[in-house]
Amino acid sequence: MSKAQDPFYIVKEEIQESIDKLQSSFHQWERILPDTGEQVHLTKELLANCESIEWQVDELNKTIDVAARDPSWYGIDNRELESRRRWTITACTQVGDVKKSVVARKENGNSASAMRRELMKLPISHQSDRSYQYSAEDNDDFIASESDRQMLLIKEQDEELDELSASVERIGGVGLTIHEELLAQEKIIDDLGTEMDSTTNRLDFVQKKVAMVMKKASAKGQIMMILFLLVLFIILFILVFLT
After folding, report:
1. Torsion region of 76: left, alpha or beta (phi above 0 gives left; psi -120 to 50 gives alpha)
2. Which of 34, 197, 212, 215 sits in a 20 to 30 Å window from 127, CA-based?
């Protein structure tokens, strides 16, 4: 089976595309200022994508374990199995690194937010004076701009989630196809084993019968049979060639 037709490489390509998108979103997330609405929303999206990709890689590992039981049956060898396992380990590492970075920054952000809330509770004399104040007009413009940006971000994230959902559905379909194929092949193997057992039993029966006949036939009986056949041959020779 070529790589283009191998279900493993089909799923691998889709997972790799998801990982590339995840890393691109992660780099964008790193450039966003903390404690903003955009940063919080993108954090949730990154964690959700990490969970989805980890699940996909885990399902792919299960198919590798099934193929490892009889690699020759699936037309692969141990080197190919090792290559597939290395790729899944690399994929898990890439996703795990992103997830750890996001979780660590999220926890640090929560701690900083809690500290700021505590400082806000202090008396006014303990707070620093603001060097400037926003006018009401500036506040309105900022809120309107931030709202538009949030709406655009939400729209983009909805589209990415739709793509992710379609990818998961395709992977699920491929996994179901692999499962059905494995069940069919397992049934064929069971039927073949049953036929081989039946044939072996018949051969054993015939061998026992032949051994029994040979045991019962004495040397004298065998000599008589040879003489009878020799006399029969001579008679037939005379009738055919001398008459």
Report:
1. beta
2. 34
